[in-house]
C-alpha cells in the first residue's frame, strides 16, 4: 500500500490510562477514584447508564478489574522495555490524580505517588521515549465525587489547579507534552466517568452537565497557563472524542440534522478550548433550553487566555444520522449513537470500522482550527486467540491499523499538520466501557481474563512486529 512519507520527527507510539493498567489501587497511599468503584462486565454498562449510582464497592456482588489492571504499577520497567523494543518515540499515559492527592482536597501532595511517576518518567527517558501525559483521564478522586458532587462544584477547580501545579513543578524537566481532560466531550454521554457525577432521576441532565463543562473549561485554561509559566517550551492540548457525522441520505432535513449533531458533539468543547469562547450555536442552545451557566467574573477572559496549543483526539468510528429513526436501525456497541451505516463493517463489539472517516476527521478539524493535530487513541477491540505454539496471529488488527495509518498519510498529503499517532491500548488492558480484559487492543498480550485469573505474562502478538516495522520505516511500509 502506497503511503505519504510521514514528517521527520513524527511521534509514533502507543496510549494507555492509569486506571486501566496500573493496578495497585490501594498501594503507595493512593486514594480511591471513580474507576475503582466501577464493576466489570455488563454491570459496568448498567452503572454508567442508570441514575443515582451510589459510588460504593461491593466485593460480595461484583468484580472490580481496575483494582489490579495489568499490574503496571509493579511491572512498568518490563512494559516500557517492550514499548522501546517496538521503537516507540512517544508514550501517552495519564497520572492518577488520586495517587498525588488521595482525597483530592489535601493541601500537600502524596510523596509516594509523585515518586512512582518519577520512576516511570526516568524509565521512559532511559529509552528516549517522549511522555505525553493526560492530567485527568476518568480517574477523579472519589472523595471529590461523593462530598463535592464532582465537577458540579466550583471548589473542584481549585483542587484541580493545586494538583496541576504540583505535577507540573515536579516533572517540569521530564514532561513537555500535556493533555488536560481526556475525551472532554464524553461528559455529554457519560457524566459518571467524565464529570464525576451521576444524573439523578428527577433532574434535567443538561443543566448540571454544562455547568460542569464550564468548570472544566476554566480548569483547563488554568492548566494551560500554568504549564506555559512553569515549563519552558511546553505544549498543552485538549483531548476530544471525534466521530464525523454523516447524513444517511441527501434529504436536506437529514443533512441539517447530521450537521447539528456534529456541532453539538464534535465542536462545542473544541471551540471553547481552541478558540477561547463559547460558540454562537451553543449560546443559542442554552437560551432555547433555559440553561443558565453560573460564571464568575473573569471566567470568559481566562478561557480566552488559556487556549490550547494543539488538538489531540480519539477516533474509533464515524456516526450516521437520520432525523427519523427506529430502535432496530441503531448502531450497536457504542455510546455515540447513530444508525447503522450499510457501507461499513463492525468489530466484535459492534463498533463500525471506517478508516476513511479518520481522514475526514483530520481534514474537518484542521480546516476548522488550523492548529496541529495528534491522534492519541485509535484501535480495534477484538477477541484474540493464543495458539498452541503460543503465537497470536492478529491479522485483523494489522489490517485495521494499516488502513487507518494509510488514511493519516492521505490526510497529511491533503495538507493537514499531524504531530503523531498513539494507538489505544498498546498493551492489553481493562476496557473503560465494559471493564473486560477479553476486549483486547494491544500489540502485547497479557495473560489475564475477565475475572482476574491469569499469570499476567506478557506475550508479543504478530502486530507487535508489524508495528515495529511501521515505526522503523516511518510509515512507509504498511
Automatic annotation (TrEMBL):
Keyword Hydrolase attributed: yes
Record-linked InterPro entries: GH, GH_1_N_CS, Glyco_hydro_1, Glyco_hydro_1_AS
Origin: domain of life: Bacteria
Catalytic site: 377
Entry's transmembrane regions: none
Record carries keyword Hydrolase: yes
Keyword set, alphabetical order: Glycosidase, Hydrolase
Coiled coil: none
Record-linked Pfam families: Glyco_hydro_1
Family: Belongs to the glycosyl hydrolase 1 family.
NCBIfam families, alphabetized: PRK09593.1, PRK09852.1
Protein name (database record): 6-phospho-beta-glucosidase
Organism: Oceanobacillus neutriphilus
